[in-house]
Write a structure and sequence with these properties.
With 269 residues, the chain is α+β, with helices and mostly antiparallel strands. The protein folds into two domains: 6-153, Jelly Rolls (Sandwich); 167-267, Homeodomain-like (Arc Repressor Mutant, subunit A, Orthogonal Bundle). 45% of the residues lie in helices and 19% in strands. The protein has helices at residues 94-98, 103-112, 124-135, 139-153, 161-166, 170-180, 187-193, 198-209, 213-231, 236-242, 248-259, 263-267; strands at residues 10-12, 21-25, 36-38, 41-49, 52-56, 59-63, 67-71, 77-81, 86-93, 117-119. The strands form three sheets. It has a five-stranded antiparallel sheet with strand order 2-9-4-7-10. It has a three-stranded antiparallel sheet with strand order 6-5-8, with no helix packed on it. Strands 1-3 form a two-stranded parallel ribbon. Strand 5 (52-56) and strand 6 form a beta hairpin. Helix 2 (103-112) packs parallel to helix 4 (139-153). It is globular. The relative contact order is 0.09. Residues 187-269 form the HTH araC/xylS-type domain. InterPro entries: Homeodomain-like_sf (IPR009057), HTH-like (IPR037923), HTH_AraC (IPR018060), Tscrpt_reg_AraC-type_HTH (IPR020449). Keywords: DNA-binding, Transcription, Transcription regulation.
Amino acid sequence: MEIPTQKEIRINDKFDSKALFKIAPFDPRKSVTSPHKHNGYLELVFLTATSGTHVIDGRETAVVPPCLLIIKKEQVHHWTLTAPVSGYVILVKKPFVEESLDRDIRKLVEEVSRYSHIPLPSGEYLQALSVLLTHEENPLCIEGLFKAFLAKALEKKSHSIKQLHTSHTLYAQFCALLDEQQLVNHVGHYAQLLHTSQQNLSIACKKSVGLTASEVLAERLIHEAKRLLYYTHKTVAEVAQALHFSDESNFSKYFKRYTGLTPSAFRKL
């Protein structure tokens, strides 16, 4: 099966300009689509009733509900589904994952993105979560429900989230240290613990997630800093000390570089 040339590929955008997360019941008018890409977001399609085929980058898969279809932002896809179609469509932009105060959401999104199709033994649990998500407006509740949705969808997969913590890859071992130990603002500290060089650690991270070791550590540090600023009464100086920055000024410059805000400004949001 041929994939259309780049000039022929339509790019769909189902998002409002400022939205980072969206869920809606499947639109029955879109049961048959032509090849297209998405405008910078991950699409998860949870189907409870239909049949047909789904094609991603030229690879065709039979659709047998209940199932979850996963379309990454760079992929070209289309489907032919038989009416009636029942289910939900979830759209997730990268900043939603990056700005989440729950570090497990990033891991779960990374894990679900390994797949293009996940057959489900039952759709009842995900159906209930989808209904709750469509009516929820509280950002923290949305994160919690979405986390539960992903964890349940991945429950029966061989590469489950539990195995991410026990994997023997250098990147996974690095992530395990970041999860289990107090964060230290120095890649060399973790390279020494893993008995490798900073260069090797960065290569492993780059191969796994496309980020250097410093960038992976920076994401964790910023997430942890946001949690401490949001959930605790620690001063900015105390947060800087907790994250092993040399002083408050150094921490503030680091935080602003990655967020565009000073720690004090973030706390006032």
